[in-house]
Amino acid sequence: MSALVNGLIGSVLAITLSVVAQKTGKPVKANAEGWKILHPGWFINGTLVGSTGMTAFFGYIWFFVGSSRSDAETQMLYVLGLLVAFGFATFYLAWLCHVQIVMWKGNQLRIERLLGSINTVSFGDVSSVRKNEFLGLYRLNFKDGKSVRISKDMQGIDQLLAKLPRHQF
Questions:
Q1: What is the CA radius of gyration of the chain?
Q2: What angle is formed at CA 112 by the lines to CA 111 and CA 118, rounded to 5 degrees?
Q3: Whole-angstrom distance between the N-terminal and C-terminal Cα of the chain?
Q4: What pLDDT, in 10s, does the model give residues 11-64?
């Protein structure tokens, strides 16, 4: 098959998986303390595993395989670019979905980060919610100038957005 056909098939598969992921998201349930916690679903975790695998693959090529062709220097620059791009994407996705934990209870929103910082605010302190279609993120801006980014593919994001007052969208 030609590269164009393979690219089209890959694009159709990616779009199909994205639509299925949005349609199969389950609502989150409250934990024992009453907090509802956003968590990544199969689509985010699958993307994270795939991106980690690609980072490891390009790292292996860069560090251990190399190239013996006449244009080896150019090839290795492409490999380095792919290694950096997949590495950054893996790190960013892991930070966005696993390092910060977003939860809510009643009208309180709580953001916990892996390093121990906890920020609890009321829904009334949310000054705006903006959606970035390109990055697939919601950005919640608070009255104190701080903000938090949340992936639109997190399970429970629709429930959280429904709890926020409508005048903030």
A1: 20
A2: 85
A3: 46
A4: 787 778 777 766 666 778 888 888 999 988 888 888 899 999 999 999 999 888
